[in-house]
Amino acid sequence: MKSLVAVWTEAKRASAQAAPYDVAVIGAGVFGSWTSHHLRSAGKRVIMIDAYGAASSRASSGGESRVIRCAYGVDEIYSRFAQKSLEQWKELGRRVNSALFQQAGVLHLGGKGDGNIAASAGVLAKLGIPHQKLNQAELMKRFPQFFLGDIDQAIFEPESGALMARRSVQMLVREMSQSGLELVLEPVLPPSANGRMDSVKTAGGRTISAGAFVFACGPWLPKMFPAELGQRIFPTRQEMFFFGLPAGERRFTVPAMPCWIDPNNLYGIPDLENRGMKIANDEHGPPIDPDSADRLIPKESLAAMRKRLGARFPAMKNAPLVESRVCQYENSANGDFLLDKHPSIDNVWLAGGGSGHGFKHGPAVGEYLAGRILGTQPPEPRFSFASKGTVQKRSVY
Ligand SMILES: Cc1cc2nc3c(=O)[nH]c(=O)nc-3n(C[C@H](O)[C@H](O)[C@H](O)COP(=O)(O)OP(=O)(O)OC[C@H]3O[C@@H](n4cnc5c(N)ncnc54)[C@H](O)[C@@H]3O)c2cc1C
Q1: N or C: which end of the chain has fewer CB within 10 A?
Q2: 17 pLDDT exceeds 70?
Q3: 80 in any annotated domain
Q4: Which residue out of 101, 107, 217, 233 has the highest number of ligand 1 atoms within 8 Å of its CB and is therefore the one to mutate?
């Protein structure tokens, strides 16, 4: 007769083999959520696990708003991803009956002879994406709230704009939960498998078995896979400022004010939902720990940003700070995404490297990764693990 221990061990093995889920997605940020959505749309049984909940204040996807634009200079692959994603964002907004996308337009400012403007215009024309080229005189007439200074030309994308980021991800996850998705709120422990993985363990002691695993852990990827990603994903501290508009002022709200991207590493989003005009520096900040970092803005940063704000928008030079946020980019070496199999665990997938521009692409990233997992999508070399360097040298913006 078998001992009780032997019976229990066999039962445990059998339950591990008959994994109740096809795919476990670890991370309910924008990449994990859209990957889950596309896997479920293909009929797969998916479970999601997140340490802090969907698009939490610690996550890169947890901000109020994100720019969605299609101009990417010569990097056509991202223009295509953005174009495809915008349709899916709009569709999500219609399904959940919420204004997740704000069609503010996006204005790309450029100096004299800025090659990026010409390259973007070429790609947008090729893809049939509406855009207008503006010279300095046209810019002054159309957007008088800007002080142009060194700005000589621009491209305006009238059909792009801003996404209500945190809300969009939380609504997508809620939509999936309402149709049966299980979301576990616990940290997953770093895996130690080689070859193939049957299950992950949570800090609370739960074992979750699945046929495949997607680690969409954003800035936590280096902690999850220190050997593979400790030197390949660089989380950096990024500060965002919301300045209050003068009372009754409408020049900095939609439709007068677009989202804008400045060649001097600055970008902004108009006042949305009366929260103030957002402005941020796009240069990479210092390293950050997404678990333990305090998220306060030092006085010096505020003073520096107020100066830059006043220089570009004279009417805002005395505007009060009404809100601020500290978030983190999760940069790959050059800004290309990482969407690939783990180099030594066959059924583990890595999704990250959003590098300060990933949010808008969530739907296309999810579709791409779901396709890779299902075997219907050919690999894109730029998203491969093998292409990820260990020295930061940004080339995708
Ligand atoms: C300041 C700022 C401005 C930006 N602006 C733009 C913009 O204008 N346009 C644009 O397109 N993009 C922008 N981005 C980039 C974009 O927001 C990110 O690339 C994107 O949100 C990354 O999403 P993610 O799903 O990879 O990561 P995250 O959103 O960070 O999600 C990762 C998730 O994994 C979970 N997790 C981690 N470890 C574990 C674990 N062990 N167990 C369980 N769960 C775990 C976390 O809790 C988290 O929810 C910006 C980013 C920042 C910070």
Answers
A1: N
A2: no
A3: yes
A4: 217
Q: Provide the 8-state DSSP code for 36.
A: H
Strands 348-352 and 207-215: parallel
Instruction: Inform me whether the pLDDT recorded for 15 exceeds 80.
Output: no
For residues 203-214, average pLDDT: 97
SS3 91: helix
Centre a 10 Å sphere on the Cβ of residue 39 and count the other Cβ atoms it contains: 24
Using CB atoms within 10 Å of the CB of residue 384, give its burial: 0 to 12 exposed, 13 to 18 middle, 19+ buried. middle
Got the DSSP string for 169-217?
HHHHHHHHHHTT-EEE-SPBPPP--SB---EEEBTTS-EEEEEEEEE--
Residue 340 lies in a domain: yes
Position 352 in a domain = yes
Note the pLDDT tens digit of each residue in 336-391. Answer: 999 999 999 999 999 999 999 999 999 999 999 999 999 999 999 999 999 999 99
Does the beta carbon of 36 sit less than 6 angstroms from any atom of ligand 1?
no
Is position 264 within any domain?
Answer: yes
Nearest Cα neighbor of 338 from 227, 239, 219, 172 is 219
Q: What pLDDT band is residue 10 in, cutting at 50, 70 and 90?
A: low
Please state at what angle helix 165-178 crosses helix 30-41, rounded to 10 degrees.
30
| Mean pLDDT computed over 143-172 | 98
Total structural domains within the chain: 1
CA-nearest residue, atom 4 of ligand 1: 356
CATH of the domain at 357: 3.30.9.10
Q: How far is the CA of 219 from the centre of ligand 1 (A)?
A: 7
Can you state the angle between helices 76-96 and 115-127, rounded to 10 degrees? 60
Q: How far is the CA of 24 from the centre of ligand 1 (A)?
A: 18
- pLDDT number for residue 193: 82
Residue from 330, 321, 377 nearest 354 by CA: 330
Amino acid in position 306: R
- Position 4 pLDDT exceeds 80: no
